[in-house]
Design goal:
Blueprint: E1 5-9, E2 23-32, E3 36-44, E4 56-58, H1 61-73, E5 86-87, E6 91-99, E7 111-115, E8 127-131, E9 135-137, H2 144-148, H3 151-164, E10 177-181, H4 186-197, E11 201-206, H5 211-216, E12 221-224, H6 228-231, E13 241-246, H7 254-257, E14 261-269, H8 274-285, E15 291-294, H9 301-312, E16 320-325, H10 329-338, E17 344-348
Parallel strand pairs: 10-11, 10-13, 11-12, 13-14, 14-15, 16-17
Antiparallel strand pairs: 1-6, 1-8, 2-3, 2-5, 4-6, 4-17, 6-7, 7-9
Amino acid sequence: MCFWEVVGQWCLELAGTALNSFCPVETLLLTKFGGKRRSRRWRTGGGLIYASWGRFLGFCRRFRTLGVKVFEKGQARPIFPRKLPHILVTDVAGEVVEVGEGVKNFKVGDKVVAMLSYGNGGGLGEFAAANAEMVVARPSEVSAAEGAGLPVAALSAHWALTKDAEIKLDGTGKQKNILITGASGNVGLYAIQLAKLENAHVIATCGARNIELVRSLGVNEVLDYKTPEGEAVKSPSGRKYDFVIHSASQAIPWSVFEPNLSTNGKVIDLTLGPSSLFTFVLKKLTFSKKTLVPLIISLKGENLDCLVKLVKEGKLKTVIDSSFPLSKAEDAWAKRLDGNNTGKIIVEH
């Protein structure tokens, strides 16, 4: 086992199971590009299981738009998945059952939240191995379901706001006008809450059925993205945006954003396509005050720990759409592919 790995087994009643014995492991595998998936129970012995965590795990919108389609069509190979069969999902929470040599911060029985590597995945199953640097303690006030929803989506929102938009999350900064597109998606739902911690004036776009949900999280103005006003992303109060967190699945051209930006307005783009890359380069070359930057995240355990603490303090919550048992993981994955959920889909073992 890797020196820095922490092995977790996310079934509380099996917390004492020895991993160096033969043990049945249930997983959901991607076996063929183009959407072929199947469930499998296998037996692993003669060492530690490097398969999958299964206690609670969450799907997120960004994983769906950039992950599900990319994973299932093989568009990101050879970066990820590294090989087939591949055990899906990276966001997990549960209980540690064994630690690797040199791991000092965790012990058997610790409740934790973790993000697995994109290349290895491993979330949809009973066991997994994780790099200790991306594992953080989960206090009793934070449920496993709440914690499992955090890693990809909340880390994306946190990085976009604290690094690219320089939000401090403590209410001490100057009020900013922030537009969040795709606000009812998983990144958007976290971004709303984090932006409000800085007392930002938040304008959000979403579908009509989710307007009340985003309002309940503190949004100041809401635009139905299917209306002419929503398509133009114009603030109903006439405000210009200091920052835009563009997390909507549909593309919005720079020509729509630009007239709505303040003098030094910045679009932080999570969608990252050829058009946005071209705009990013063009604005750099022309020294434009109005800019677009792609979201490039440096994953850090300290940021995940910050998010877990915000949940503990009641300042951040995970919106949960539905829950499935691990035996129905394929149904959960199919629902995520359909894209009709609002909030996290949780798989529980």
